[in-house]
Amino acid sequence: MEKVKAQIEELLYENAADFEIAKVLKQEIKTYFNTLEETFSTSGGKDFLVKHTKKIDSILKLIFKVAQREMFGDYAPMKNSIPLALVALGSYGREQLCVYSDIDLLIVYKEIPGYNTKEMIEKILYILWDTGLKLGHRVHTVEDLYDVSKTDITIKFFIRLKKINSK
User: How are beta strands 135-141 and 103-109 bridged, if at all?
Assistant: First the structure.
């Protein structure tokens, strides 16, 4: 993964198109999928699913970093101050992501002037789509979550879990 990070840093330095960055990530994903049989032979069951989920996590973190760098350049705020969160849902959130399952994401943001959160979300989604990963996603503002939770059991569970963890 370090080699991929270096390639992406170079592409960012050269102001390459998002599609070029996605091609590097797509190749990394293809290489990773080609090694799955070997990985499964050494670690099965829950251990394998956790390792697979962590690999997908590392790709998403890298895509978030790319979007952040492209949006803010050298003047990026600390990543925990950006009013944007990627939340893993479903089997991905439970660290039970099967190899060909879609990656369920809840993207939550707050519109604050200067952060360009909607543009950053678009950039993240476009790069994810260009990598070829199957993505199931929802995008909501923080303010909308409560109303959406009334009709969506997955989000209702997420909000309930958040309340429990914050006590």
Answer: parallel
Phi, psi of 103 (to 5 degrees): -95, 110
Q: How far apart are CA 109 and CA 85, in angstroms?
A: 6
| Under 8 Å between Cβ of 79 and 60 | no
Whether the full predicted model's pTM is greater than 0.70, yes or no, is: yes
**pLDDT digits (tens), the chain, 167 positions:** 889 999 999 998 898 999 999 999 999 999 999 988 887 778 767 788 888 899 999 999 999 999 998 888 878 787 778 899 998 888 888 888 888 889 999 999 999 988 889 999 999 999 999 999 999 888 999 888 878 777 776 666 565 555 445 54
Superfamily of domain 2-166: Beta Polymerase, domain 2 (3.30.460.10)
Taking the C-alpha atoms of residue 139 and residue 107, their distance in angstroms, rounded to an integer, is: 5
CA distance 9 to 149: 39
SS3 97: coil
134, two tokens:
């199957």
